[in-house]
Fold:
Amino acid sequence: MQCCIYICITDLTVATLKRQPDIQLENEKLEIIDMTDVSEDKFLLSAKNKSKLVLLDSKTDKVLSEIILKDKPRFICMVDSQTAATTLVDKKIQFIRVKDNTLEDEALLDVDVDVMGIAAYQNNLVVSFHDPPGVRIISKDGAVIHKLDNTTAGREVFKEPRWIATTSDDSIYVTDWGTDEITRLDSSLTILQTFSGSLLNGPFGVIALNRDQLLTCSRRKNSILLIRPGTNSMTVLLDKQHGIEKPRAICFCKEQKKLYIASVGETSSIQVYKLSSRASS
Structure:
């Protein structure tokens, strides 16, 4: 996921995340791969096992709209305020119209690699892929602007790059399940910084709260981590004692100050945590 989001609490190390009632998905189990914020009160999720995208209302936790796709969706992002994009399993990117609480399919873009993660970036898209493992910045019609893989880098940079987040300082963050790292890149895909360590074990979903606060899922550690690029630090915010188990995808609703977490496997619920300052918790 993939949009930059900003919250009034400037430091999550002096805040609390309190568990709220889960969102109960109606009459089905979904394999949720990714989630992204759409607006102040809506977010979008991809359900791979049902080949569909689902639009949820963050105020009521109700499904507003669904759309069945031609293939299984993976990762999603908002390209602009009314357009989403999702990567599909068959080397395609599907654009989706998001308007008036409805989802409608738009253009289908063919690409020459098996795309995984996706994020909007400087009026373009940044995508990750596995064979060979790497990252590209592409235009909305698929033209390659910049690329980084193990061949162009001259060394092993990626093994299994997946989720992508971008920030207002034009940084790109890519999680890599194979290396247990998150790599920070600039607009030319030059490597600026690498995050690793015992806490970052199996990094999955990542979101940017602002340019110096990222949240990521550490799947093998059953935890949600706060990463501070400015100090190159990592802090555990939530873990198994808070109910976190095999987290995969995360999304933050700015207006509601709620963090949504989906876990690995088919599930009938999404975990919800309310953000507040410690002084008012």
User: Anything to note?
Assistant: The chain has one domain: 12-280. DSSP finds one helix and 25 strands in the chain. Residues 150-153 form the longest helix (4 residues). Residues 1-9 have pLDDT under 50 and may be disordered.
